[in-house]
Design a protein that fits this description.
0% of the residues lie in helices and 39% in strands. A hairpin with a 2-residue loop joins strand 22 (248-251) and strand 23 (254-260). The protein is an all-beta fold. It is built from no helices and 23 strands.
Length: 261
Protein backbone atom coordinates (compact mmCIF):
# COMPACT_ATOMS: atom_id res chain seq x y z
CA UNK A 1 0.00 0.00 0.00
CA UNK A 2 1.28 3.47 -0.88
CA UNK A 3 2.16 5.79 2.00
CA UNK A 4 3.60 9.16 3.01
CA UNK A 5 6.15 9.55 5.81
CA UNK A 6 6.05 13.00 7.45
CA UNK A 7 9.28 14.39 8.93
CA UNK A 8 10.62 17.69 10.27
CA UNK A 9 14.36 18.47 10.49
CA UNK A 10 15.23 14.79 10.04
CA UNK A 11 12.75 13.64 12.74
CA UNK A 12 10.21 11.11 11.50
CA UNK A 13 6.76 12.05 12.85
CA UNK A 14 4.10 9.86 11.26
CA UNK A 15 3.29 7.49 8.41
CA UNK A 16 0.05 8.05 6.50
CA UNK A 17 -1.19 5.11 4.41
CA UNK A 18 -3.04 6.13 1.24
CA UNK A 19 -6.25 4.12 1.44
CA UNK A 20 -8.66 6.12 -0.72
CA UNK A 21 -8.68 7.77 -4.17
CA UNK A 22 -8.15 11.31 -2.86
CA UNK A 23 -6.40 12.55 0.26
CA UNK A 24 -5.92 16.16 1.30
CA UNK A 25 -2.92 17.87 2.93
CA UNK A 26 -3.24 21.10 4.90
CA UNK A 27 -3.26 23.06 8.16
CA UNK A 28 -6.93 22.50 9.03
CA UNK A 29 -7.49 19.43 11.21
CA UNK A 30 -10.04 17.76 8.94
CA UNK A 31 -7.36 17.12 6.27
CA UNK A 32 -6.24 13.51 5.83
CA UNK A 33 -2.65 14.70 6.35
CA UNK A 34 -2.90 17.58 8.87
CA UNK A 35 0.20 19.78 9.32
CA UNK A 36 -0.36 22.40 12.02
CA UNK A 37 1.96 25.19 10.86
CA UNK A 38 1.25 28.75 9.67
CA UNK A 39 3.40 28.22 6.55
CA UNK A 40 0.90 25.56 5.43
CA UNK A 41 -2.36 26.66 3.82
CA UNK A 42 -5.70 25.45 5.18
CA UNK A 43 -6.17 23.16 2.20
CA UNK A 44 -2.66 23.14 0.82
CA UNK A 45 -2.58 20.20 -1.60
CA UNK A 46 -4.04 16.82 -2.51
CA UNK A 47 -2.98 13.44 -3.86
CA UNK A 48 -5.44 11.98 -6.36
CA UNK A 49 -5.60 8.49 -7.87
CA UNK A 50 -6.08 8.40 -11.64
CA UNK A 51 -6.14 4.82 -12.87
CA UNK A 52 -3.10 3.16 -11.31
CA UNK A 53 -1.23 6.46 -10.89
CA UNK A 54 -1.09 8.86 -7.96
CA UNK A 55 -0.97 12.56 -8.88
CA UNK A 56 0.17 15.37 -6.56
CA UNK A 57 -1.76 18.65 -6.95
CA UNK A 58 -1.00 21.94 -5.21
CA UNK A 59 -4.32 23.52 -4.23
CA UNK A 60 -3.29 27.11 -4.99
CA UNK A 61 -1.44 27.38 -1.68
CA UNK A 62 -0.02 30.71 -0.50
CA UNK A 63 3.58 29.55 -0.09
CA UNK A 64 3.65 26.88 -2.78
CA UNK A 65 5.11 23.36 -2.74
CA UNK A 66 8.40 21.77 -3.81
CA UNK A 67 8.77 18.28 -5.24
CA UNK A 68 12.33 16.98 -5.10
CA UNK A 69 13.50 20.59 -4.69
CA UNK A 70 11.57 22.05 -7.65
CA UNK A 71 8.37 24.12 -7.54
CA UNK A 72 5.37 22.04 -8.59
CA UNK A 73 1.66 22.50 -9.24
CA UNK A 74 0.72 19.06 -10.57
CA UNK A 75 3.00 16.06 -10.95
CA UNK A 76 2.88 12.26 -11.20
CA UNK A 77 4.40 10.77 -8.04
CA UNK A 78 7.24 8.23 -8.23
CA UNK A 79 8.51 6.03 -5.45
CA UNK A 80 10.94 7.97 -3.24
CA UNK A 81 9.71 11.46 -4.24
CA UNK A 82 10.01 14.09 -1.49
CA UNK A 83 7.26 16.73 -1.13
CA UNK A 84 8.36 19.89 0.74
CA UNK A 85 5.73 22.07 2.41
CA UNK A 86 7.41 24.79 4.44
CA UNK A 87 9.95 23.01 6.68
CA UNK A 88 8.05 19.72 6.53
CA UNK A 89 8.97 16.83 4.25
CA UNK A 90 6.64 14.10 3.00
CA UNK A 91 8.48 11.13 1.44
CA UNK A 92 6.28 9.06 -0.90
CA UNK A 93 6.57 5.26 -0.92
CA UNK A 94 4.67 3.59 -3.76
CA UNK A 95 4.08 0.20 -2.13
CA UNK A 96 1.30 -1.69 -3.85
CA UNK A 97 -1.22 -0.11 -6.27
CA UNK A 98 -4.36 0.86 -4.36
CA UNK A 99 -7.95 0.14 -5.38
CA UNK A 100 -10.53 2.91 -5.43
CA UNK A 101 -12.79 2.90 -2.36
CA UNK A 102 -16.31 4.14 -3.11
CA UNK A 103 -17.05 5.05 0.52
CA UNK A 104 -14.08 7.43 0.82
CA UNK A 105 -13.08 6.03 4.21
CA UNK A 106 -10.62 7.91 6.41
CA UNK A 107 -6.91 7.56 5.79
CA UNK A 108 -5.27 5.40 8.48
CA UNK A 109 -2.83 7.28 10.72
CA UNK A 110 0.02 5.30 12.24
CA UNK A 111 2.00 6.88 15.06
CA UNK A 112 5.75 6.52 14.65
CA UNK A 113 7.52 5.19 17.76
CA UNK A 114 10.07 7.95 17.22
CA UNK A 115 7.56 10.84 17.12
CA UNK A 116 8.74 13.69 19.29
CA UNK A 117 12.28 12.33 19.52
CA UNK A 118 15.20 13.99 17.77
CA UNK A 119 17.78 11.82 16.09
CA UNK A 120 20.78 12.54 18.27
CA UNK A 121 23.59 14.33 16.48
CA UNK A 122 26.94 12.59 16.53
CA UNK A 123 30.14 14.34 15.47
CA UNK A 124 31.93 11.03 14.92
CA UNK A 125 33.02 10.80 11.24
CA UNK A 126 31.42 8.04 9.11
CA UNK A 127 32.75 4.59 9.95
CA UNK A 128 34.99 2.84 7.47
CA UNK A 129 33.50 -0.12 5.64
CA UNK A 130 33.22 -3.09 7.94
CA UNK A 131 33.86 -0.96 11.06
CA UNK A 132 31.36 -0.23 13.81
CA UNK A 133 29.65 3.22 13.65
CA UNK A 134 30.79 4.11 17.19
CA UNK A 135 34.33 3.21 18.31
CA UNK A 136 35.22 4.85 21.59
CA UNK A 137 36.86 3.01 24.53
CA UNK A 138 34.32 4.38 27.02
CA UNK A 139 31.28 3.52 24.86
CA UNK A 140 30.14 -0.07 25.22
CA UNK A 141 27.30 0.21 22.72
CA UNK A 142 28.46 -0.42 19.11
CA UNK A 143 25.29 0.97 17.60
CA UNK A 144 24.98 4.46 16.12
CA UNK A 145 23.06 6.91 18.23
CA UNK A 146 19.81 6.48 16.28
CA UNK A 147 19.55 2.69 16.51
CA UNK A 148 16.32 1.44 18.02
CA UNK A 149 16.26 1.79 21.80
CA UNK A 150 14.29 -1.43 22.14
CA UNK A 151 17.47 -3.53 21.70
CA UNK A 152 17.75 -6.36 24.18
CA UNK A 153 19.73 -9.55 24.55
CA UNK A 154 17.78 -12.70 23.75
CA UNK A 155 17.44 -15.22 26.56
CA UNK A 156 16.07 -18.72 26.20
CA UNK A 157 12.65 -19.10 27.89
CA UNK A 158 12.45 -20.87 31.23
CA UNK A 159 11.36 -24.52 30.88
CA UNK A 160 7.68 -25.13 31.50
CA UNK A 161 6.73 -27.14 34.59
CA UNK A 162 4.21 -29.92 34.01
CA UNK A 163 0.98 -29.49 35.97
CA UNK A 164 -1.67 -32.10 36.71
CA UNK A 165 -4.53 -30.28 35.02
CA UNK A 166 -6.72 -31.12 32.08
CA UNK A 167 -5.70 -29.26 28.91
CA UNK A 168 -7.04 -29.22 25.38
CA UNK A 169 -5.55 -31.76 22.99
CA UNK A 170 -4.68 -29.03 20.45
CA UNK A 171 -2.14 -26.31 21.30
CA UNK A 172 -3.09 -22.86 19.94
CA UNK A 173 -0.59 -21.47 17.40
CA UNK A 174 2.24 -19.44 18.91
CA UNK A 175 2.42 -15.88 17.46
CA UNK A 176 5.54 -15.13 15.47
CA UNK A 177 8.26 -13.03 17.07
CA UNK A 178 9.91 -10.61 14.63
CA UNK A 179 13.29 -9.10 15.40
CA UNK A 180 16.70 -8.11 14.06
CA UNK A 181 19.62 -10.14 15.44
CA UNK A 182 22.97 -8.36 15.55
CA UNK A 183 25.73 -10.42 13.91
CA UNK A 184 28.88 -8.39 14.63
CA UNK A 185 30.46 -6.12 17.22
CA UNK A 186 30.27 -6.14 21.01
CA UNK A 187 26.47 -6.58 20.91
CA UNK A 188 26.63 -9.63 18.63
CA UNK A 189 23.70 -11.91 19.44
CA UNK A 190 21.49 -9.11 20.81
CA UNK A 191 18.05 -8.52 19.31
CA UNK A 192 16.04 -5.47 18.23
CA UNK A 193 12.35 -6.47 18.50
CA UNK A 194 10.15 -5.27 15.63
CA UNK A 195 6.92 -4.56 17.50
CA UNK A 196 6.21 -0.99 16.33
CA UNK A 197 4.76 0.21 12.99
CA UNK A 198 8.07 1.98 12.22
CA UNK A 199 11.55 1.14 13.51
CA UNK A 200 14.33 3.61 12.66
CA UNK A 201 17.91 2.39 12.26
CA UNK A 202 21.23 4.05 11.47
CA UNK A 203 23.17 7.20 12.12
CA UNK A 204 21.98 10.69 11.17
CA UNK A 205 23.94 12.37 8.34
CA UNK A 206 25.67 9.04 7.61
CA UNK A 207 23.10 6.35 6.86
CA UNK A 208 19.50 6.05 8.06
CA UNK A 209 16.86 3.48 7.10
CA UNK A 210 13.54 2.39 8.52
CA UNK A 211 11.61 -0.86 8.72
CA UNK A 212 7.83 -0.52 8.34
CA UNK A 213 5.39 -3.19 9.43
CA UNK A 214 2.51 -3.48 6.99
CA UNK A 215 -0.39 -5.95 6.68
CA UNK A 216 1.52 -7.82 3.97
CA UNK A 217 4.87 -8.01 5.80
CA UNK A 218 7.96 -6.01 6.74
CA UNK A 219 9.70 -3.59 4.36
CA UNK A 220 13.11 -1.90 4.54
CA UNK A 221 13.31 1.67 3.16
CA UNK A 222 16.32 3.93 2.59
CA UNK A 223 15.80 7.31 4.28
CA UNK A 224 19.09 9.25 4.39
CA UNK A 225 22.73 9.01 3.29
CA UNK A 226 24.75 8.52 0.12
CA UNK A 227 25.09 4.79 0.76
CA UNK A 228 22.03 2.57 0.57
CA UNK A 229 21.43 -0.44 2.83
CA UNK A 230 22.58 -3.86 1.62
CA UNK A 231 20.37 -6.96 1.84
CA UNK A 232 21.93 -10.37 1.20
CA UNK A 233 24.89 -8.71 -0.56
CA UNK A 234 22.73 -6.60 -2.94
CA UNK A 235 22.52 -2.81 -2.59
CA UNK A 236 18.97 -1.44 -2.39
CA UNK A 237 17.50 1.43 -4.42
CA UNK A 238 14.74 3.91 -3.53
CA UNK A 239 12.02 1.24 -3.65
CA UNK A 240 10.89 -0.49 -0.42
CA UNK A 241 12.48 -3.93 -0.05
CA UNK A 242 10.32 -6.74 1.39
CA UNK A 243 12.11 -8.71 4.12
CA UNK A 244 12.11 -12.50 4.38
CA UNK A 245 13.25 -14.65 7.32
CA UNK A 246 17.05 -15.04 7.53
CA UNK A 247 17.72 -11.99 5.30
CA UNK A 248 20.98 -10.27 6.29
CA UNK A 249 20.95 -6.45 6.39
CA UNK A 250 24.11 -4.31 6.38
CA UNK A 251 23.65 -0.73 7.60
CA UNK A 252 26.22 1.77 8.93
CA UNK A 253 28.77 -1.00 9.47
CA UNK A 254 26.39 -3.23 11.44
CA UNK A 255 25.18 -6.61 10.11
CA UNK A 256 21.77 -7.84 11.25
CA UNK A 257 19.62 -10.89 10.49
CA UNK A 258 15.84 -10.60 10.09
CA UNK A 259 14.16 -13.20 12.31
CA UNK A 260 10.63 -14.57 12.29
CA UNK A 261 10.15 -17.32 14.87
Amino acid sequence: MASLVLSLDGEMIREFEITKPRITIGRRPYNDVPIDNLAVSGEHAAIVQIGNDLIFEDGGSTNGTLLNGASVEKQLLKDGDVIEIGKYHLRFFAGKTITAQPDFEKTMLIRSPFAGMHLKLDDTPPAAEGALPIDAPTHLDPFPSTFSPEIKTHHAPEPLVAQAVHVATETPPHPLHYALKVLNGKQSGAEIPLTKPITSLGKKNVQVAMITRRPNGFFLNHVQGDKFPIVNGATLNERPCPLNPDDVIELAGVRMEFLAK
